Amino acid sequence: MHMLLVIFAGCLLLGVFMLFGMLWGGDAAGSAQAARSFVPVWLVVALVNMWVGVTRAGYTVAQDLPILAIVFIVPAGVAALLAWQMAKA
Fold this sequence. Notes:
single chain
């Protein structure tokens, strides 16, 4: 359940990035740049989530690495897809 909430939060954060990209850029190129900028920020957030899981929840790094992969890849994949679509527009 926690993993789904983190993925959902990542998609919401991507939406905020896209909104600010549209507001500041004024066009699809601004949104595409915002989606590309989201990916490193989301990587840091996902790594912090893993660190909390290892230090507070008692998981090992080996147990938490697949969770990190899923939590990072889903929103980052959506961001890549949106950046690709916005770049074409």
